[in-house]
UniProtKB/TrEMBL annotation:
GO molecular function: nucleotidyltransferase activity
Entries under Pfam families matching the protein: NTP_transf_3
Descriptive protein name: Molybdenum cofactor guanylyltransferase
CDD domains per UniProt: MobA (cd02503)
Source organism: Cognatilysobacter xinjiangensis
Length: 186
């Protein structure tokens, strides 16, 4: 990684979003409640965003203390749309609850990219995702969730005019979707 990619503008405040509203059907149990070293994946994701510098962290999903999806069944974009009323304009970093190898340095690379682009994700990985939230992006997200076609993160990223970043360590972006994935990780 290049040294400059980790430079986050001083004083940049951002909102962190953890997507924890999936059905976990392939896992057979709630992925957010899986534990590593005595902490759930949900607690770990929230702490990771705070450690990366998030001023606020919002959890999307049907669980205590979280923001429930306004329109269930719309995947990550639906979760993002549901939390937007609680997100101030400015930088936002979104991550799924099921990426236990994700680290602060990787999130900071995404966040730094929003200084040059309206949104960023790593090539081949629609999540985690960083974006600069403003009225125009809010309108694009609303349009995606109301068009009835089942929005995708790729469609959202394209609508945001985002860029793809190279990823030197794709293992950091590995998610756990099924018991075999979890067994291989844990």
């Amino acid at each position: 990684m290049e040294r400059g990619l980790l430079a986050v503008p001083r004083g940049l405040s951002f909102t962190g979003v953890v997507l924890a509203g999936g059905r976990s059907s392939r896992m057979g149990r709630d992925k957010a409640l899986l534990e590593i070293d005595g902490r759930t994946l949900l607690d770990r994701a929230v702490a990771l965003l705070h450690d990366a510098g998030a001023a606020t962290v919002i959890v999307s999903g049907d669980r205590p203390g979280a923001t429930a999806d306004a329109t269930p069944g719309l995947g990550p974009v639906g979760g993002i749309a549901s939390v937007l009323p609680g997100v101030d304009d400015g930088a936002m970093v979104v991550l799924p609850v099921d990426m236990p190898a994700l680290d602060v340095a990787t999130l900071r690379i995404l966040l730094a990219a929003t200084g040059d682009a309206p949104a960023a994700h790593f090539a081949g990985h629609p999540l985690p995702w960083a974006a600069r939230i403003d009225a125009a992006l809010r309108a694009r997200i609303l349009a995606l969730v109301t068009d009835g076609r089942g929005p995708s993160m790729r469609a959202l990223h394209a609508a945001a005019g985002g860029i793809e970043l190279p990823m030197a360590d794709a293992a950091r972006l590995r998610n756990v979707n099924a018991p075999a994935d979890w067994a291989a990780f844990a």
